[in-house]
Amino acid sequence: MPPGTLRVSYLAERLQRAPALPLVRALACAQREAVRGSAEARLVIETFSLVVEGGHVDATIRAALVTGAQMVGEVAVVPLVDQAAANDAPGERGGRAKKGSLAAKGETLGRRKWLARSAKGDLLLRILDDPHPHVVENALMNPRVTEALAVRVAARRPVPPEVLDVVGESRFASRAAVRRALVLNPDCPPKLAVRLLSSMTADELADVVAAPGLCDEVHNAAELLLRR
Questions:
Q1: Counting Cβ atoms within 10 Å, is residue 86 exposed (0-12), middle (13-18) or buried (19+)?
Q2: Nearest to 222 by CA among 61, 5, 14, 35
Q3: DSSP summary character for residue 211
Q4: Are 131 and 94 in contact (CB under 8 A)?
């Protein structure tokens, strides 16, 4: 696949002509190789997930893939294709501003977004606790934000799911520690968590299976990958 954002359009175009069963087997193979540590296989799974989330796969193709996966026993592919409609609804957990944050003190959204780009020290920590995804998005572009701080945001509980979506699309999304914190966070949107599972090792998948508070969809997807 080509580099950068062209990957999504490249794959979306080819999915329109792809026969279901070979595609199911290719995705299942990529899932297995990604769990074994293949960066190329992980890229295939992540790009396919972005194609599905972007609405580039019509309902007929999705139905054929789900049926094909069930026919050939590759049921771990199903969560990649058939994501529950409830996952698209914005979450309501964690929406209240954390005590001590600028939002809790009544600072305007515009100023918080502006400060996020260049804040440092204690001010930066308070901004990273903001409940608004646009503020956190700006903060993650701040050069003073380290991987450890990104993990701190990914592990926040409770936290608005939209904030975790922002972390999953940030420059830190490729870091293993950030991905693990996102998946193990009960507030993580299932779409994002299921996509990240394919980049985890067998030991990490076992931790997900044993983790309390995660939704059934994430637990089941991790169990399927681990069992295979």
A1: exposed
A2: 35
A3: -
A4: yes
Asked if residue 51 lies in contact with residue 44, where contact means CB atoms within 8 angstroms, the answer is no
Residue 142 half-sphere exposure toward CB, CA atoms < 13 A: 26
Contact 208, 200 (CB under 8 A): yes
Q: Express each pLDDT in 43-66 by its tens digit.
A: 888 888 888 877 888 888 888 888
Q: What is the pTM of this model?
A: 0.67
Asked if residues 165 and 137 have their Cβ atoms less than 8 Å apart, the reply is no
Distance CA 178, CA 155 (A): 8
DSSP sequence for 66-96 = HHHHHHTT-GGGHHHH---GGGGSPP-TT-S
172 within 8 A of 196, measured Cβ to Cβ: no
d(CA 8, CA 90): 24
Which residue intervals of 36-175 are DSSP H helices? 39-53, 59-71, 78-81, 109-116, 121-128, 133-140, 147-154, 161-168
DSSP 101: S
Spatial distance between the Cα atoms of 3 and 40, rounded to a whole number of angstroms = 12
Which class for 38: exposed (0-12), middle (13-18), buried (19 or more C-beta within 10 A)? middle
149-203 pLDDT, tens per residue?
A: 999 999 999 999 999 999 999 999 989 999 999 999 999 999 899 888 888 888 9
